[in-house]
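Can you please make up a whole protein chain along with its backbone structure tokens because I've never seen that pairing?
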Amino acid sequence: MAPAPSAATPLVAAPPTPITVNRTTTSHSAAAAPSVNGSSQFLHITQRPGSLETATATYEALLEMQNRGGRMQVWEQAPDNTLAEVMGRNASGTTQQGRLAGLGLALLEQVASTGAGYRQTVVDMAPAYSPDRIQGKAMDALWSFKSRPSASVELSIETRSGARVRLSIHDQREPSTTGTGMSVEIVVDGELSVQEREALRALAGGFDKTVQGLSDDEPKLDVEELLRFDTKAFARLELQLESYGKDRDGNRVLTLGAQLQVDGDRRAVQLRSREGVVKMATDLRQPAQWGTDAQRASAVEHYLGRIDKAAERGQAQPALVDLFKSTFAAMHSRYDAPQAGVGLKPGTPLHTQTGTFGEEGQGLLTGLADFDASITATTRATNPRRTQELDTFHYTLNQSTHITGSSSRNRAVSQTQTAQLMASYHQSLLVSAAPRLDTTSASQNYLYNKVEDRSSTEVDLAYDNGEAVRATLTQAMSRSQHTTRVENNQVTATTTTAPGEQSRHTDLLPLLKQLQRQQEAQDADDTARRERQATLQAWHTQVLQGL
């Protein structure tokens, strides 16, 4: 056993008091706290909060702690800031969400305060007999965190000035021979201005909320605050998160993988779970088509209802559908449009200008930014007697808008929405739930359904010298379902339901001219105003619902 240090700081139960261990021989002399690029030297020890009573900080005392079943926290650097305080608290947590709580906020606060890089690691482990043993176990734990973490988070930000900031978290909550704990790192490439550091601080709460939402047992995308980042300070933001668990056989598996990319023109997210994959991208280059907050909220609500109907028809897993819905709502939670007239010179493209369409024309659009969204369930072969019968679910939504014209009085817009559902699933003959299929013939009593649906809605508007000259609404839909009936492992019937394609073409020009006339009188007539708003809402609903 190594000799006890000549002086030591006593350990206390709460909050943990750091102890810097000074080695007494030349070969084990204590180094200064490592820089962010220096080698790791785990020479700082604190007692795990609440685990033991006050004890003298000698290695003899550590031996007593081991005999009494105690544990200790070993730090890469002295835990003397708010970030380390959060890490020390979270290192005793048992849930992934609890262990990551507040870390994102503390990391951004740290870099906002200093503008510099930083690195810290805490290992929660059983006491060891000597400084060398402590050092070795702590280094083993650090490598374990980074190679096989229970969760990892990385946020990368590029500023307008060209500086880059990368924040990373590696957490290991699963007990192992090296212990549990976490490691964080801040890397700054370039110099951060005062304004950029304040913009980072303003982003802290949103970053933390996003990590908390994704690390929940029922993950969801909560990025509304994160999307409020200062576009004058930041050019690009990218977030990656991975969370791992164990399957029924005890094997380590990815439970959630998330990737979010945001810049001034586009947002894109991909979420991977054991149930499937959710993808979505929104195009922010055409603020001319965006509606009011109320119109956008109404559009999102309608789309969430359509997702529910598609999920019910295709028998999708509820957890994956909920993730898709939270993603769709989050990606349309807010848009940051340029202020009207600011920075717009003659000849500026019409699609970049807010206020391009009047209230009556805007009411015939969805009010949403263009997007591509999809949900794809993990394909499963659930019937061991017929492995070619796969359970699948794939649903896509899309909106694209084309705006042309020389001015707001001479403009045209074509907006198209499409949706497609392709799914297949097994259904019990007696109930709507999935049957329990095995290799016996007695289990082979079910319906196997294949569903394929498509729909589209297109709005086409044109104005000449401020007057509406074209306004049409074209909607189309097709639905089909093929069902195979199996009884005692024998196919007894096959049916196909395909009502054929339905379509409808509506000339909205008379309506649009009527709305324009009502616009002129609505300020003086409250009744006319209410009637006009009701008409606009009714047609906005029709545009969103389709056939």
Summary: Residues 1-39, 47-69, 338-346 have pLDDT under 50 and may be disordered. The first strand starts at residue 19 and ends at 20.
